[in-house]
Write a structure and sequence with these properties.
Length: about 260
């Protein structure tokens, strides 16, 4: 199983548009340049894209990926789904629609917002199929499970992948860890988790909270994601415990 960090930035990316866009991040450090958060998991001959933000085209070109088997949308905030139009090219490469999975309410809003993608037009066929995300998956030898995470007044979907005794958890856009989340992520080998900034935020995890939760649930290796421009890569790398590190765009992790 291989996971690629397509992007580990927050909704405005790093640098942000405008003066002072780098914030506290050193512009000379390439690992501080962050696209919107997304991962690509490849295993058992399948590729699973988690979220389709505005940078999806650039991210998939950089990854050298031309086809995707499944897309999971964790929630319908713009930075996680507004690149969905680029499924047109992925469907063209596959010569069939790409299936998009999401919770039922999120899927309905996506179909309403991007109706032409799911239902086609008079000139173009649909390029995306809609499937409600429920239960768990078995992809070859990989077990994939899901959990709903509190994200302000809504929820996002978290995921756990297990294959051959190795495990990966992906948890972004959450502000607290529920018992169901702790049960899902307990003891994972790799946990890619939200750590927006150092100070608390009403809808996102912050640095100390994420570190504390990772200790409590027995994470073996933590990678911080969904970081804003206050989170300098080199500074974090020096101060974090040995089992934790800031992620960076293009990073690939083999399990």
């Amino acid at each position: 199983m291989k996971v690629r960090i397509l992007g580990c930035g927050t909704s405005s990316g790093v640098p942000r548009i405008g003066e002072g866009g780098w914030g506290r991040c050193d512009p000379a450090e390439a690992r501080n340049r962050r696209l919107r958060s997304s991962i690509l998991v490849e295993t058992a001959g399948e590729s699973i894209l988690v979220d389709a933000g505005p940078d999806m085209r650039e991210q998939l070109i950089a990854a050298g990926t031309a086809t995707i088997d499944r897309v999971v949308i964790t929630h319908d905030h713009a930075d996680h789904c507004h690149g969905i139009d680029d499924l047109r090219q992925l469907a063209h490469n596959r010569d069939e629609p790409v299936t998009v999975y999401a919770r039922a309410d999120v899927l309905q809003r996506l179909e309403d917002r991007f109706r032409y993608l799911f239902h086609g037009t008079a000139l173009y066929p649909p390029v995306a199929g809609a499937a409600v995300l429920e239960g768990e998956w078995q992809c070859g030898g990989v077990r994939v499970r899901f959990v709903d995470q509190p994200h302000g007044r809504i929820t996002s979907v978290g995921m756990r992948f297990d294959e051959g005794g190795r495990s990966l958890g992906y948890a972004i856009d959450f502000h607290d860890v529920t018992p169901a989340m702790a049960d899902l992520y307990v003891g994972v080998d790799v946990w890619i988790a939200d750590a927006l900034r150092r100070t608390p935020h009403p809808t996102h995890a912050h640095l100390d909270a994420t570190i504390g939760w990772a200790r409590e649930i027995g994470v073996k290796q933590l990678y911080l994601s969904h970081m804003d421009n206050s989170m300098d890569w080199a500074t974090l790398a020096k101060e974090l415990p040995s089992w934790a590190a800031p992620a960076f765009d293009g990073q690939e992790i083999l399990l």
